[in-house]
Specification:
- The chain is mainly α.
- The chain contains 5 helices and no strands.
- 45% of the residues lie in helices and 0% in strands.
- The longest helix is centred in the first third of the chain and has 12 residues, at 4-15.
- The protein is globular and about 35 Å long.
- The chain starts with a helix and ends in a 30-residue tail after the last helix.
- Residues 87-97 have low confidence and may be disordered.
Length: 97
Amino acid sequence: MSTSYGRKLRLIRKAEGFTQTQMRDLTGISLGAIKNYETQGVDVGLSIIERILACAPLQKYTLWLMTGQTATQAGQIAPKGAEDLDDEGDNADAANQ
């Protein structure tokens, strides 16, 4: 998976107001792994994405996380700052719809 997932996960975490420790507690993903995904560019595997999206407060970001798109009428949004992602097609142009 693209290393841009780490940047997306950081935006989601910050949009929800979670610390990395709180994200660990919510998802069960180790603190070290979260730090590596967010800051070291370590690839985020599908199993990690599934664990994150299994958490109810984060499910509203599913479409954006996977495609960069939003569907606000379906409750699928982008986190604040998503419009700043600009490489690898990860720009969430639809975030303002």
